[in-house]
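Quarterly update from the structural biology core.
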Amino acid sequence: MKYLKPVLLVFVILVFSMSAFALPEDLENPGMTPDSPFYFLDTMFDGLQSAESLANEKGAEVVAMAQENKLNALEKARERYENAIQKRIREANNSEEKAEEVARQTSRHMEVLAEVYEKVPEQARQGIENAMQNSAEGRERALNRLTERNRERANEVAQETLTEMLENSPEQAKQGIQRALQAVGSEIPSDQSGEAGRSPSGDSENKPEDAGSDDKGKEGDNFRLLVSDAPADIEDFEYLIVELSKTRIFKIGGDGKGFEEKDLDASVDLTKVVGESSMEVLSTELEPGMYNKIELYVDSVDAKANGETANVMVPSGKLQIIKSFEVVDGQVTTFVFDINVVKKGQNNEYNLLPVISKSGVVGKDIDEDEVEEIEEEEEECESDEDCDEGYECIDGVCEEIEEVECETDSECDDELWCNGAETCVDNTCQAGTTVNCDDGIECTIDSCNEDTDSCDHTADNSLCDDGLWCNGEEYCNVALDCQAGTPPDCDDGSVCTIDSCNETTDSCDHIPDDSLCEEGYECIDGVCQEIQ
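Predicted structure, tokenized:
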């Protein structure tokens, strides 16, 4: 039976961890924070809180750690905040009221984070900016869900929250809000921001160019990083060019900051590296040892899908894969980072997401077929205006317009179900409306099946993975969306050890604590034994 002292300790932790995310002056005591050695106890009870309360608490922890300039703890708090916001985003799918609630809460979070930006040490400002982008993503995706149900109300909420954020914030804070919104593709009206917003895909009309780093294959390098793309919705795209700015590679038990940061000047067209195909973005030398996480930072995305510019978003501006691998001196380790593009809603919007199950070391975890380079295809035309009369621009080539004469709809039928029913209008065949297979479930891969004349919805558990071991393995329910996993049971049955889950090693820790034994006893091998 456990002793009274640890029970009282847990009670105190619970009391002081229930803080509210409000104005900066109200954040003096956010409760247990990530810099505490007992923070793991606080996180054990996160599942008992509502998603709204949890997001407030984790936001308060971000501000507290930034104010104290504790950078490692700040990043941990920021990652917890990101996970909490993702839970709120999933709640926004439930109803119009819930979507509006999430949009307003995340807007208020952005305002508060912007207000404290100038007040925290300069080294901590990047953590605040990253948290603002997490808030901005939650706001944007909640507004998208609200738009699907009530477009007029979504416009009102978007305008109201943006006005409140900008009116109540100093100039420097306004700039931070604008950067955060632009990072997730949210539009900022020019009459409010002074600068029209743009989507992450930007206005560039450049077509695919060579991808990869300049030092590919450099002698002495022992680590290569390649990028690939899982099929999913990539077939919608004519091109999907991802500009990568840097990568962080995390070492298990590493000294200092625990990761190596490498600049990337890489451009990858994901339509060219589908399935087992992949392309190098980095060749470098790493310290030999075990590593367990890779982060890719996305600078911009330029994409065209379904014949028009696509809005492709990257949550938090980065992608991360948690998977252990070893770099051995004298050998070259090649790691493939697989990315999935998934359609969201009906407005030509997509998300880029990492795919853990398709990523890993070549030859050990996965197979791959490396693409050496991408050749730019010269296009004869960009629009119908570039072609002569009687011709139209199709896939960059001027093709002669062929009018199909008809009298009945049946004469136009191409016997394909997925592209809709063709019709005969004014003696000319008209294309049908493509079947919409979106089931509204974020973790299913939706596709149209010509063999059965129906839509398929395949669950993909990797789309639910939050990259955390201690909260269990998330899975996809085709009816209920992403479901939480079952946390590992770290209780070793001992009365004198403090049990905790170690996210770094993906294992349980059991630390002896003599104070949990009666006076005159000490904790040895998990048992209170009399001191000799």
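The CA atoms of residues 59 and 81 lie 6 Å apart.
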